[in-house]
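Morning. Coffee machine broken again, so started the prediction first thing and wrote up yesterday's gels while waiting. Chain of 400 residues, entered below exactly as on the submission form.
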Amino acid sequence: MSLTVAPATLDVLAPDFRVDSQPVRDAAAQHWYAETPLGPAILTYDDCSALLHDRRVRQAAAGHLADQGITEGPVAQMWAELVLNIDGPDHTRLRRLVAPAFTPAAVERLRARMREIVEGLVDGFGSAGRCEFVAAFADHYPPRVIFELLGLSGADHAQFLAWGKELTHLLGYEVPAHHAELVTAVEGIGAMVDELIAQRRHTPAEDLISVLVAAADSGDRLSDAEIRAMVVVLVLGGQDSTRCSLGHALSLFAEHPNQWALLARRPELAPAAVEEVLRVRPVCPVLWRVVDVELDHKDLHLGAGTRVWLMVGNAQLTDADGNPDPFDITTEHRPQLNFGHGTHFCLGAQLARAELAEALVVLARRLPDLALDGEAVYRPELAGFVGAEHLPIRFTPIAI
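Came back before lunch.
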């Protein structure tokens, strides 16, 4: 790729813009980055990876609400308290205190319950031979895992789920239009978590709230506000992102029926299948970053404060030689970049991987001959987590 060719311009704000589109592929063939109304878009794997690993480039989400005019009130205050928006010693302290809640051992304890939830949900539609997958499965499975993790009583599930759906608007560019509903959700979740904190201080249980209440290091403990913020991060990252990944997985496997049949025969391929789904159809096809200090990368000068848009949804679709790297759960590919890197590597990565793997094992076994049963409807590309809002599927019913 010649650096003498001028970069293309991409209209990322267009309603029909998609990262995995021909215009983006053409732009990547022309140059390693493109110009956009929001700042430079990084299009190639090596350059996305290099900037993710560069300590002079950090998370860009902290100013996301302020950019939309939300600078005070409960939503702005909560946003400022989220671990993904905190850097330096405060971030290190929070990660150290909450790390025990997300160890591989903690995740492993949930796997059997994950399988039970999946089997129960499939029981509800498996005999019909078709369903709208988002409403029948993806809307319910990740929240129920979160309910299990938090130790929420059944009476609180519906309300918590409704608030969790409202929180998804935080990651898009229509926050002002949803601000009143977001205030209600933030305050409602906060009150519910405060009640759980009080209960767990008196009577600890085997759940995340109890772990966070007990988290301590050299006398340091999480405040109630920090525990509330961790629950919001869990809802944002663990509920909606996994929901979107499930829809991507089913649509991808519907396009690759031989891979679906192979997964049914070889459930040990589930972890590789998860990585392939995240590589080929990530829920965050664009990662936001901001440059802390003035720097040059190749032929691009980046001033301090410049936002860069890492288009991993395009970058991950080619191999090391720049050739298309097709969806294949049996082949080794370059690592997907979706969980970030370094100090802001996703805390819930192991939980997300386990949830998806356990779901795919059961779904592949119980929904043979998977195919799309109509047109899917997807969120806009800059809506935060990108996924299907409507995904009709059909399959061959099997006797349990």
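Residues 272 and 332 are 9 Å apart (CA to CA). Going to sketch it on the whiteboard this afternoon.
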